[in-house]
Structure formats: C-alpha cells, structure tokens
Amino acid sequence: MKKIFFAVCLYLPVFLSGQLVVDTPLSARLTGYDIDVVLEPVSHIVKGDMTAWWVNNSEKPVVDAMMHMYLNAFSSNMSSFAKGGQWSPAGDEGWGWVKIRSIYDYKGNDLSDSMNFQSPDDGNTHDRTVLQILLPEPVLPGDTLRFSINFESKLPSPIDRTGYADDFHFVAQWFPKFGVYETAGMRQREADGWNCHQFHPNSEFYSNHSVYNVSVTMPEEYVAGSGGMLIEEIFPGDSLKKVVWRAEDIVDFAWTAWPEYKSVTRKWRGVDITLLTTDAGLKKADNQFAAVIYALEYLDERVGPYPWPHLTFVDPPMSGAGAGGMEYTTLFTSAGGGLVPSFLKLAEMTTIHEFGHAYFMGILASNEFEEPWIDEGMNSYWEQRIVDHHYGDGYGLIRLPFIKMSDSDQGRLGYITSPSRSISTNDLPSWLYPHGTYGMMSYDKAAAWLHTLEGLIGTETMDKLFREYYRRWAFRHPSGRDFISVVNDVVREEHGDRFGENMDWFFEQVLYGNEICDYRVAGVTSHKIKSYSGVVEGDSVTYTRSDRTSDTLYISRVSIERLGGVSLPAEVLIGFDDGKELLERWDGKESYKDYEYTGATRVIWVKLDPDDKIDIDVDRINNSWSSTQKFYASRRMTDKFVFLMQLMISMFTL
Amino acid sequence: MAVLKILGKGAAAAVSSYKLILLIWVTTMVMVFMVALPLRSFLSNIFGNSMAVTRLSDGFDLGLAGDMGKPFVSLLSAVSMGGLLLLLAGFLLYTFFAGGLFASCASGWGRLKMSTFIRESARNFLPFLKIAVLMMLLIAAYTFFIVGIPIIVTMAISGGSKGSSNFIYLFYAIWALGMPVWLFVADASRRWVAATGSGNVFMALSAGFRALKERFWVSYGIVLVILILNASFVFLSIWFTGWSIPEKGGLIFLFFMATQALFIIKLFMKTWRYASVCALASQKK
Ligand SMILES: [Zn+2]
Question: Which contacts of B133-140 are long-range, i.e. CB under 8 A and separated by 24 or more positions?
Fold first, then answer.
C-alpha cells in the first residue's frame, strides 16, 4: 500500500502531503480543505473562506465537480431529508442552509453561474443537497482542481445530527464537500464518474480521506472540540479566540462549541483522548473512558491499528441530544451518559458503537448510502462483541437480579421480531428499504448474520479475515463484494473446501436473499424392539430377533426440520439416557432429516445448533427437545414472583 | 431505654399472636398463587418440551422474548395486570387484617380467638380503610414536596440531566427520616379506633397526632428502629431471591420454603410495629 502513497504524493500539492498528525500519509489524499471561518453565536451562522482541492486520479479528463451541500437539507420541508425524517424547524430561526457566496477556480474564473443542484437518488427537485459545478475547462488526469469559496452556513434547530440549541453548537456536514470520483472497477463500477448522494435521513457518509486545516473564530468562553488535532488557540482580542485544527486522512470534519463543556483527557498508548461532557456527565466519565478504551483495545487487536494520535468524544447535554450517537471518525458523540442507570449499558454501548465507526466507515471507508449494512451492520456486529465481552456474556446490556440481556441478543431481537423481516434483501441503498425496515435490516439483520458467519467459520478465522480486510482496504473504499472476496480467500486458506468452493452461497442467502432461517426439532420417538421380530417367507419365519431373555433394545428416531428458506449447515447434539452424547452434522440442504439409533439406550434430549451459532435462526425455542419438560425453571420463576408479590403487598400497605 | 423496653414488649406481643400471623400468611399465599399458577402454566406452555427454558435460570433473559414472540407480550401484560390486581386485593386484605391485629392489642395480645379476630377485622374495616387512604394521600403529598419538587428543580437547573445532584440524596434522607412520623400516626389512629370502637376517622387521626406529640421521641424512635430493620430485611430478601438459582426439584422446594419463612418474618415485623405502638399507648395509662 505504501507504493500507492508515494506514487500519489508525487503530484500532490504541498498542502496535501504535509505531515503534522500522522508520520506518513495513510490514504491517497485526493481531497483537502483549508477553511477559515467565524462562528456567530447569536445568529448561529458559520461563515468564511475555504480553499478546496481535488486531485483527478483517473485516466480521463473530468468536466465537472460534485459537492455535498448537506445543510440545505434543513432549508425546506421538501428536501429528501426533511420529508423522510420529518424534520421541521423550531420556529422562524430554525432553518438551516449553506450558501456559496462566491466561487473561483485557480485561474480566477468566476464559477457562480456554473452551479446547479442535482438529485441523483430520488429526482426530488426540491432537494438542494448535491451541487454540480461545470468547469470552464476539464481537469486532466493527475491535475489538481482548486476552488476558492466564500460560504455561509446557517445551523438548523432542532438539532438533527447537526445544529444548535441556545449556545450549544454541533457543527457537522457544514461546508461544501467533494463527492467521491470513482474510477471504473472501483466498487465494481463500470465507468468513471462522481459518486455524490443526497443527504438522507439514514445515511450521510461517503467521502475521500482528506486533509483539513480548519480555523474557527468564536467567543472566548466557548469550549470547542473537533475531529482534528488542536494546533493552536489564538486570542485576537474582543473576547474572541481562534481555534486552529488539523486533521489528516479522515472522511469528514465536524466540530462542536459550547461554553458549558467540561473537558477531561486521558491517554491510551500514545492516543490523546478527550471527553467533552456536561456537569452531570462528569460522574460517568470513568465509565465512558473505560468503554472507549475497551473498544480501542479490542479493535486494535482484532482488526487493525487505530492510526491517529488523537480522539475526541462528546457526551452532549439534553438540549443537544439530537447530536448524540454520531460518528466522525476522530470525533464521535455518545448519548445519555449522565442519565442511564448503571445496570443498563446504553451509554457505554453507544460510545463503543460510535467509536467503532472509526474503523467501519472511517478507515474502511465504505459507501453508507449504497451499502448501509457494511457500515452499520458490520459496526453493530463488533459493538455487540465488545459490549458482551467486557460487560458479561449473556448480560452485556442489562444486568439485574431478575432480568438480563446481552447486546447481541438485543440486536437479534430487532430482526427476529420484525414482521417485515423478509420483505427485502439486505443489500439495498439506505433510502430504498421499504416500510421502515432500514434500521432493522442494516443494523440488526446484518449483525445477526455476521455472528452466524462467525459461528460457522469460527472466531479465529473471523478475526483473521477482518485483519485481512483491514490490510487490503484500510483508507480505501471497499464494497460488499470486496469484503466477500476477502472472506472467500481467508476461509479457503483456513478451512480448505470444507465450506465449498467459496462462501458465496452464504451471502447469496443472507445478504442478497430475503428468506428466513428457522430450524426445528420436530420430535423424538423411542420404542422397544419387540422380542420377536421377523418376516414370514413361504413356510418359514426369518427372525431378526427372537430372544426373550436379551436386554431391551430401543429404536430412537430424531426428526429435525428446516422451516425457512435459508439453508445452513447445523450441528445436532443428541443425548441418551445413559448420559452419552452424540454430535451429528447436518448440511441443512434438505427440508428435513431423520436420525435413527438402535441400542440399549434411548434418546432423551436433542439440541439443534447447541452452541447458538446460528444467530439468524428466528426461533430458538423450537431448536431443542427434552423428554422431560424442564418445569423447574418455571417453578423457580413462579416462586420468585410469589415472594416478590408478597413483599410488595406488605410494603405498600400501612 | 424507653424505646428498647417498648420494642421488647411489642416483640413479645407479636410473637404471641403467631396464629394470626400464620393466618395472614396463608391467605396471602393463596391469593398470590391464584395469579401465579396460571402464569406458571402459561410459561410452561410456551416452552413445551424445549430446553431453551434453561436460559431463564439466572433471571429472565430478555433475549428470549423475541423467540417467544406474541405470547411474550401476553405474558408481560398478564404479569403486570396480575401484579396490579394483587396489589389492590392485598391492600384491602391487609387493611382488613389490621383491624383484627389492633383489636388484639385492646384485648391483650395472643388471647384473641380466631373468630373474634375475624369479627373485629370486619368491624374495623371501614374506618381503617378510610385512615389508610387518607394517610397514603398524606404520604404521597409529603413525598412529592420532599423528593419530587427538589428533583424537578435540579432537573430544571441542570438543563434536564439528572443532575448536579449529590444533594438530592439529602432529600431522600430527609424523606426517609420523616416516614416514621406518618407511620406512627397511622398506627396510633388505628389503635384508637380499635380501643374506643368509634368509627370517627378524623377523631382517630387527631388522636394519632396527639399521641405522637405527647411522647414524640419515644414514638418516633420505636417506629424508626423497626423501619430501619425492615428496610434492611427487605433489601437482603430481594438480594437473596435474585441471586438464588436452585436447579433441582428438592432445592427449589427448599428455596420456596425459605422465601416463605422470610415472608413470615416480614409479617412479624409489621405486627411488631403495631404491637409496639399499642404497648406505648397502654404504658401511658
Ligand atoms: Zn452506527
């Protein structure tokens, strides 16, 4: 990968190749932004100048540029974002927008009349979140396009990911930003072209890894943080301060400013971690740092290194809750730190999830719009592993004396209980999931089948394939197909053809298919073999058994069924009345299977998928059978209920 | 010293009325089982012969809720509705029995025949119900002023987050320290009704307050001691129940016996409070 870096560095402007944050460029750095703005705290306007670069690394001249203008999603109730997410402003002051006041190319050509809004996703002509700029002359291969832009961004209220609430400002998706110019073959694309999607209620990330030099002038009393590294704070007088940040190799730059922030810092293996929180949140700071360090350690070991020396995360106040639970790689927001009781790991889960996006979308910069599963699903899978690993397998999310739940079960629950779980495949673009199934499909189902994949190929192979995925695709733009090809290579290397030629059969079912998976133990029968067994043939009887004195022999038949369309290999553990156990492996191809055992012992229990490897099985209660009903659990539950009710009655009467 | 003496008398009186306590225990158990048994067979039906039920071993695994599907929703509403009904029925039942218990104190503890006990319970029921409702309203208002308002105020000041709020615990403490006052008044008023045979609730309440005023520290002290013991006892009981996971038939039966023994002790502690308040009143005469 180094080779690519050096090749690209040759024609990069000095600005792009400079090093302040990381030792060597991590990415190709095809885009960069130099931004100098002022935050006007009363009008909630951010305005100033920006120089934006884009390098044409294709082999053909490019005649236009495409930019995200995402704050315009808040400039109309008719934008695709506002319609889909039902956002409306909190009064006259609540609208948001981004306006380009002037734009010139490096030759000084005024391009203000060459701009037009596009709606590539849904044709919504009211949507002004994607801007096309027609260039006076094409950008030749290897050339750099440079815009000098004066712009003004009005933040929206209420906050929906970005915006303000009184003097709390969370400034994301706030400046005109390049789309990704994709070359043929990249993400299985047929021809070169821009990939620049509208701002949707459910997706917002797909950009080049860029370099950012950002200066923001704001009132002195504001405490600010960003996805960049703090270079300096300058105090020009008039109770103002100018904060200068630099960020390298991240896909988006967001920042926040609020006079009330409390700032706490810790260090983890050379990474300076800053938490910006509230008074109330301070009490949970230890938990929050623990959570983010768990995630750092876990992903660092199993996926790949976290390469930046800085990381900032925010626990926003209630008024800024709309900014909670978001990811900007080296900056992310948690939620509810000060409010949630400690038996419920919701805040920790959010912290771990949003940090995880530094990998799944930040470093491995997939396209959230077109393949949300590889962003949210993959990240949820890792979040669930981390939460359950650190807070307790089986009770990672909730741990009370009488109630518990693991984080992976929480995710699985969302999928298996959705009545619409099989109305679409899992590979749709974010805005095309029907009937509100986006979250259930992109997060829950995808995470559930990634757990299933782990169950099939083993945790070790799973970790190995993610390390390989990182090795091949870090700081590039992988697609789902690219991920699958890593899976196929690693599984083949580790397991030969145990799973067939490749794993495509798995992804065809769970990702590109919409069927459900449901295995069931239909039942078990055992009967004695009669003392006299045989066939009358002509005048004689052929006995298979005629010895009255011999031991009792049984024939036990175990019947299992596959009720759903998804067929996966499954293990069947069978228990006999002498305590012996037998493990059978079923390929799951037919819709049913019978196992028959003859001997002195009877089958008394059966567990299909005994280790709960198949997370996408929509009903696990029917996965086992026992000759004796396991009454004791319900008896114990009942006894506890009785006693607790007795106590309650006694306590609530005088 | 006075407090300990009265507590001792109260304890003796409570022990001597063990028959009444056992009667209350049996009645409560029958009542609760009327709701619990259908729940149990419902649960057994959902799981049938499945071994997934073992996942309920250390607490209800919410991860199973999805596999249970719609029956889980029915189970949840059955548990919450059943629980509410039980609380309501329990409230009436305990108000009824309190009538008999306070009557015991008038006639000397331990001497009351079962039939008299029931008759006295019935006779005192209405005034006791009124006293209970009034006192509970008073306690609710008290709780709102001492705990509710400070919480609302801190929430408002700290912009909605729970709070710059270590000092909220101060209000919890004040609240808890105030509780013996209300309980003493409720008990003394009911003792007055049982002793005088009058059904006048307001006279009863003013008698209760008067009794409190007459010997405030002793009155307050006895209820406070019992309340502290009671609270620690309940806490330990819940902790025990939560973390006990008996797996076999015999152990489950033992567990059940243990919980019921704990409950009988809980009933004894309540009777102890009643009896101590009565002992204090009779000592005065
Ligand atoms: Zn996410």
Answer: B134/B201, B134/B205, B135/A654, B135/B182, B135/B185, B135/B186, B135/B189, B136/A654, B138/B182, B139/B179, B139/B182
Q: Is the pLDDT of residue A337 over 90?
A: no
pLDDT for A7 equals 38
> Chain B residues with CB inside 8 Å of A644's CB?
238, 241
Assess A285–B contact: CB distance below 8 Å, yes or no. Answer: no
Cβ atoms within 10 A of the Cβ of A515, count? 13
As given in the structure block, the two tokens for residue A470 are 């990182």
* pTM of this structure: 0.86
Sequence-ordered list of residues with C-beta below 8 angstroms from that of A432, at least 6 positions apart, any chain: none
Beta carbons of A243 and A228 less than 8 angstroms apart: no
Closest CA to B159 of A425, A148, A321: A321
| Predicted local distance difference test score (pLDDT) of residue A3 | 36
The reported pLDDT for the residue numbered B197 is: 83
For residues A372 and A366, the answer to whether their CB atoms sit within 8 Å is: no
| Size of the A and B interface in Cβ pairs below 8 Å | 213
Q: Tell me the shortest Cα–Cα distance from B213 to chain A, in angstroms.
A: 20
With beta carbons under 8 A apart, name residues in chain B contacting A635: 40, 252
First to last CA, chain B: 19
- Do B57 and A633 lie within an 8 Å CB cutoff? yes
* A10 vs B212, higher pLDDT: B212
CATH class of A519-627: mainly beta
The span from the CA of A161 to the CA of A147, in Å, is 27
- CA B234 to chain A, closest CA, distance in angstroms equals 8
- For residue B50, list chain A residues with Cβ-Cβ distance below 8 A: 621-626, 630
Number of folded domains in chain B? 1
- Could you say which residues from 27 to 56 on chain A have a Cβ atom under 8 Å away from some Cβ of chain B? none
Every domain of chain A and the residues it spans: 1-258, 407-510, 519-627
Confirm if A256 and A169 have CB atoms less than 8 A apart.
yes
The answer on pLDDT for A633 being more than 80 is no
Mean pLDDT, chain A, rounded, equals: 92
Answer whether CATH 2.60.40.1730 is correct for domain A1-258. Answer: yes
Mean pLDDT is lowest, of A196-205, A374-383, B80-89, B149-158, for: B149-158
Distance CA A414, CA A380 (A): 12
Q: Is the pLDDT of residue A17 over 70?
A: no
Q: How far apart are CA B101 and CA A133, in angstroms?
A: 88
| Parallel/antiparallel/unpaired status of strands A45-55 and A262-268 | unpaired
| Distance in angstroms (rounded) separating the CA atoms of residues A158 and A165 | 7
The closest of A255, A128, A133, A254 to A199, measured between CA atoms, is: A128
Span A151-157, mean pLDDT? 97
Q: Which two tokens stand for residue A255?
A: 């920042």
C-alpha triplet A486, A487, A493: angle, nearest 5°: 90
Quick one: pLDDT at residue B24? 92
Q: How far apart are CA B28 and CA B25, in angstroms?
A: 5
Residue of B nearest to A627 (CA): B49
Domain that holds residue B221: 2-283
